[in-house]
Specification:
With 216 residues, this protein is mainly α. Helices cover 73% and strands 0% of the residues. It contains ten helices and no strands. The protein has helices at 9-29, 37-66, 75-101, 107-134, 137-143, 146-162, 167-175, 180-187, 192-198, 204-207. Helix 1 runs antiparallel to helix 4 (107-134) and helix 2 (37-66) packs across helix 6. The longest helix has 30 residues, at 37-66. Residues 1-5 have low confidence and may be disordered.
């Protein structure tokens, strides 16, 4: 069990943001691999992570702090941005499916896919900039103590688990898109058996095609 001081809402949010940041950069620089199974799994897993992460924020983090902060805090804008991001995610998934099922990729399809990734990156960075301005450690400590913060962090994990359909892809994706120091912090979120046994063992055949894009 983690000690109370190791539970941090800001740290947990920032770790996921770091995963998404790196993944978007990796996808942007490997667009020419868009026909491969490993690339497809990598992109689909990123979309699943974004969906799960936003659900955690929408159902746990934002409602809790909306009750504590003023209506002008910007949290309402974060909700709206999550909604606005959905078409980007759907477009990327649709274009990727077209690329994967077509015998030959049209220049138009490939260009649209490239553009959709660029649009998501731009929107994402604007979104987390606002989020980082609102959710500071100073703000959180001004409202709640460490015991309450621990409870919220545990609720965040529980919510993420409920909305994770492919843990055999998502867990290694999250861990191996982080540098070693951050990876150790993130690994504490998962049961030891998952990190030390399932990821390198039973699950490896499922996530291994993504290996060229991961930090291994």
């Amino acid at each position: 069990m983690l000690e109370n001081e190791e539970y941090s809402i800001v740290s947990d949010l920032n770790l996921v943001h770091s995963v998404v940041n790196r993944a978007l950069d990796v996808i942007s620089t490997n667009i020419n691999a868009s026909t491969t199974e490993g690339f497809k799994l990598y992109v689909i897993t990123l979309l699943d992570l974004l969906s799960s992460h936003h659900t955690v924020e929408d159902n746990v983090v934002f409602p809790y702090f909306s009750n504590l902060l003023s209506s002008s805090s910007g949290i309402k804008e974060l909700y709206l941005q999550h909604e606005e991001m959905l078409p980007y995610l759907a477009e990327i998934k649709s274009l990727l499916e077209d690329i994967q099922t077509s015998k030959s990729i049209s220049n138009t399809t490939q260009r649209l896919f490239d553009e959709s990734i660029d649009k998501l990156k731009t929107f994402w960075y604007d979104h987390i900039k606002l989020e980082d301005e609102i959710f500071t450690q100073q703000m959180i400590e001004s409202f709640i103590d460490k015991e309450e913060e621990k409870k919220i962090c545990m609720l965040m994990v529980d919510e993420a688990v409920k909305h994770t359909t492919s843990p055999f892809l998502l867990v290694p994706f999250v861990l191996f898109n982080l540098e070693e120091k951050e990876r150790k912090k993130m690994a504490k979120v998962f049961p030891i058996q998952v990190v030390e046994e399932l990821v390198p063992g039973e699950w490896k055949d499922k996530w291994e095609p993504m290996q060229p894009y991961l930090l291994l």
